[in-house]
Design a protein that fits this description.
Elements: E1 2-7, H1 12-15, H2 20-27, E2 28-29, E3 37-43, E4 49-54, E5 60-61, E6 77-83, E7 88-92, E8 95-99, E9 104-107, E10 114-118, E11 126-132, E12 140-142, E13 148-152, E14 161-167, E15 178-184, E16 190-191, E17 196-197, E18 201-208, E19 216-222, E20 225-231, E21 236-239, E22 246-249, E23 254-261, E24 270-271
Parallel strand pairs: 1-3
Antiparallel strand pairs: 2-21, 3-4, 4-11, 5-10, 6-9, 6-11, 7-8, 7-10, 9-12, 13-14, 14-15, 15-23, 16-22, 17-24, 18-21, 18-23, 19-20, 19-22
GO biological process, one term: D-glucuronate catabolic process
Function: Catalyzes the isomerization of 5-dehydro-4-deoxy-D-glucuronate to 3-deoxy-D-glycero-2,5-hexodiulosonate.
Cofactor: Zn(2+)
Length: about 280
């Protein structure tokens, strides 16, 4: 079964007047994983689709949704998958790809039948991002050993972290979709700090590996008009191109970043000095 939602884009002058409830309604994506279901959120920010797939005791097929007006989900799209649960498998037009925890799969435009299954006692949790694509690139699995790994931050500033660039143009060819995973070290709780924006692309963050009973405050908004949203484990949040996207947790955690837009240069960021945030 597939559930889908549609989210509009927002002008920053409107968003800064939102109540807590309205802010959460427009930008937070919660309850992403439902047993034996596929949940998709189609956002008008670069037409990115954010999704969660939780197969329990049967294979789940990725079907097209009304918003796409297409016979197959990937007729005009590319797809990135990162497994954040137990071992699972993704079958792409008859070819099987097994994904362990924190392994990724890129599927190019034009593939027709994609199914998801759990194949271990612990269920697989497939987190997905999809973006429009203008040409087809080969399907490819990416392990953590094949990722481009960058160490950033400092324990002094509570932001020591390991960035795993998984589905990025330095690892494989994509049209516009870029995905990776950041793991905060024990004792570090701040991500993407100092903050930045990048008007060339939007972003979505998916938070996981958060200890039960803890929370994360995700900061968004224009640098001088910031707002926050509290999140739980396995919640996602949409980040507009005009918004910062930083967070702090009451314990360490991991998160997946996914980007779509016209620029795939990871270093293309408009930095904001920490002491200039408001």
């Amino acid at each position: 079964m597939t559930q889908s939602e549609f989210r509009y884009a927002h002008h920053p002058n409107d968003a800064k007047n939102y109540t807590t409830e309205k802010l959460r309604e427009e930008f937070l994506i919660n309850n992403l994983f439902q047993p034996n279901q596929i949940k998709l959120v189609y956002t008008m920010y670069d037409r990115l689709i954010v999704g969660g797939i939780l197969p329990i005791d049967k294979a789940l097929k990725l079907e097209t949704i009304d918003e796409l007006k297409a016979e197959n989900f990937l007729d005009r799209r590319e797809l990135g998958i990162i497994n954040v649960g137990g071992k699972g498998k993704v079958t792409v037009d008859g070819t099987v790809y097994e994904l362990d925890n924190k392994e990724a799969l890129y599927i190019g435009k034009g593939n027709k039948e994609i199914t998801f299954e759990s194949i271990s006692e612990e269920n697989a949790y497939f987190y997905i991002n999809s973006a429009p694509a203008h040409q087809s690139f080969p399907t490819k699995k990416i392990t953590k050993n094949e990722a481009e790994i960058v160490e950033l931050g400092d324990i002094k500033y509570a932001n020591r972290r390991t960035i795993n660039k998984l589905i990025v143009n330095s690892v494989l060819e994509t049209c516009q979709l870029q995905m990776g995973m950041t793991e905060l070290h024990e004792g570090s709780v701040w991500n993407t700090m100092p903050s930045h924006t990048h008007t060339r692309r939007m972003e979505a963050y998916f938070y996981f590996d958060l200890e039960e009973g803890q929370t994360i405050s995700h900061f968004m908004g224009q640098p001088t008009e910031t707002r926050h949203i509290f999140l739980k484990n396995r919640d996602a949040v949409i980040s507009p191109e005009w918004s910062i996207h930083s967070g702090v947790g009451t314990s360490n955690y991991s998160f997946i970043w996914g980007m779509a837009g016209e620029n795939m240069d990871y270093g293309d960021m408009d930095a904001v000095k920490t002491d200039e945030l408001k």
